[in-house]
Amino acid sequence: MPDSSNPEQPGGKADFIVPYCDEAIAYLHTDDDLLIVSKPAGLLSVPGRHPDNKDCLISRINQDYPKASIVHRLDMATSGLMIIACHPDSHRALSRLFQDRKIYKEYQAVVYGKVASMEGFIDLPLACDWPNRPRQELNFNYGKRAQTHFEHCGVNQEGHSKLRLIPVTGRSHQLRVHTASIGHPILGCEFYAHPAAKAAADRLLLHASRLRFTHPTSNTELDISLPAPFWS
Where do the coiled-coil regions begin and end (predicted)? Predict the structure, then answer.
């Protein structure tokens, strides 16, 4: 059955009402072409299908920037940095950067248990698990290529590993499936974590922590970082 907890994903139930997110959006960069903002965990990137799920990142931003539009998304449960286009020309230029993989992204995550390797590379193809949407699955027959670098950044007080995740590709749920595939699911993940890992955190411990790219208009490099609130 589709999981109703994330109405941003295909197959999420339209009648699921997302709890209101009290945390405000943080603006880390603003100019005439684009914004870089921090999305709180628990806030939709775009409106949900239910009439009561209209509150979201872009609806809040449009109160101050009426012409702003979404270029990419984070799952509702994921916090962190997002790029917002201020006008159609900027949207097209930024979309090309994403398509050409010219935007460098880092995520911070806390995963279950102690990861033995100090770094690694996961190259496992992903496809939609159609009977169980929005879940994704490893699929070596017709899955799309998915690649993730990871770096071990220490162990927290509870004995779980802090990882820096650097996706090469941008598949749906890629970081969640890849970490689970090596036996270390992200804490608080309702889709791929076993019960102990799911119960170990009251939110998904996944945060988009860094964006680096060349500004499509000024040609200057933007390099914005924001550590996760659970990283210390």
Answer: none
Pairing, β 206-214 against β 79-85: parallel
The more confidently predicted of residues 230 and 9 is 230
> Among this protein's residues, is 75 annotated catalytic?
yes
| Paired tokens of 152 | 């071990």
- Residue 168: left (phi > 0), alpha (psi -120 to 50), or beta? alpha
- As a whole number of Å, the end-to-end CA separation of the chain is 37
What does DSSP assign to residue 138?
Answer: E
Average pLDDT over residues 50-75: 91
Q: Nearest CA to 27 among 82, 90, 78, 85?
A: 82
Judge whether 100 and 229 are in contact, CB under 8 Å. Answer: no
Active-site residue, from 32, 33, 75, 223 = 75
Does 20 have pLDDT greater than 90?
A: no
* pLDDT tens for each residue of 142-192: 999 999 999 999 999 999 999 999 999 999 999 999 999 999 999 999 999
Kindly list the structural domains of the chain, giving each domain's residue range(s) and its CATH number in brackets, ordered by start. 26-225 (3.30.2350.10)
Q: How far apart are CA 181 and CA 189, in angstroms?
A: 13
